[in-house]
Amino acid sequence: MTVAGDLLTNVSDSECAGQPDGISWEWQSSEGLPYLTCTLLSRWSHGFFTRDFSSQGPIDLTEVLQPGAQVYRLQQVHGNAVLKTSQLLPVVAPGPSTAARNYAEADGLVAEGELEALWVCSADCVPVLIADERTGLVAAVHAGWRGTAAKILPEAIAQLVAQGSQLESLKIAMGPAIAGEVYQVSVEVAAELGATIAPKSGVSATADGILEFLHQLPETPVLADPEPGKVRLDVRLCNALQLQQLGIELSQVAIAPFCTYSDSARFFSYRRDRLKKVQWSGIVSAGGTSSF
């Protein structure tokens, strides 16, 4: 990772457990404030920022990761639209002659050039940062349950592939989000996400049939809930299973061992607090193979 601005050092944390294949999550610090990185993306400037940075937006946070990079963000709408940076204007600091900015509505961004900083925000939904180790290009995705049901992550990957990426070259990190153990949803919502994973034949299209299929998976994204008509849902695992269907290996995917709902000291959670407060996640493209 390119280190810019203040010297960023690892902060030890007992929760930074390594992934099964040796990938780890590490706390970094900027001006004494913590943010999270993943060794899977160590070749790219990136960060999953905590609530401590709530007064700072993408322009400020890009200065932490890669000063001088062009900044891109969206107006997120819980859909599956993914835009390329050429379809947007870079975000600039407001000034006396700057009109109020209306951001394009979408939930995913794909870089097309060098030093493009892509940002998404979340408060329980899944922030996903994607990087291509061959081209250096990146993507950032906001995947809530609605976006996951609409397969936004496969859509972002399809756009990277259309730009020349190969599936085996992708590295994908899912940041802090609400954990399945505490995320209560209706059976219908769980079935809607499960339908994106279940085979079209051999599984009943009813909610009960889809849930039965999910429960039979070696690593199920659905857990029991004591309330009738409800289950607990792991949205990050649903996304991981969609990636597996695309042919992406488990070694290419990392899931942060942090829950926004449970960790009120570090993260905002809409489900916990019912407040519209968010934390930002971003990654900077490294460009072509000549600089990579």
From TrEMBL:
InterPro entries for this protein: Cu_polyphenol_OxRdtase, Cu_polyphenol_OxRdtase_sf, Cytotoxic_necrot_fac-like_cat
Catalysed conversion reaction: inosine + phosphate = alpha-D-ribose 1-phosphate + hypoxanthine; adenosine + H2O + H(+) = inosine + NH4(+); S-methyl-5'-thioadenosine + phosphate = 5-(methylsulfanyl)-alpha-D-ribose 1-phosphate + adenine; adenosine + phosphate = alpha-D-ribose 1-phosphate + adenine
Matching Pfam families: Cu-oxidase_4
Keyword Metal-binding in annotation: yes
Domain of life, per lineage: Bacteria
Keyword Zinc: yes
SUPFAM superfamilies with a match to the protein in the record: CNF1/YfiH-like putative cysteine hydrolases
Alphabetically ordered keywords of this record: Hydrolase, Metal-binding, Transferase, Zinc
Protein's job: Purine nucleoside enzyme that catalyzes the phosphorolysis of adenosine and inosine nucleosides, yielding D-ribose 1-phosphate and the respective free bases, adenine and hypoxanthine. Also catalyzes the phosphorolysis of S-methyl-5'-thioadenosine into adenine and S-methyl-5-thio-alpha-D-ribose 1-phosphate. Also has adenosine deaminase activity.
Entry similarity comment: Belongs to the purine nucleoside phosphorylase YfiH/LACC1 family.
Protein name per Swiss-Prot or TrEMBL: Purine nucleoside phosphorylase
Native organism: Microcoleus asticus IPMA8
The organism's taxonomic lineage, starting at the top: Bacteria, Bacillati, Cyanobacteriota, Cyanophyceae, Oscillatoriophycideae
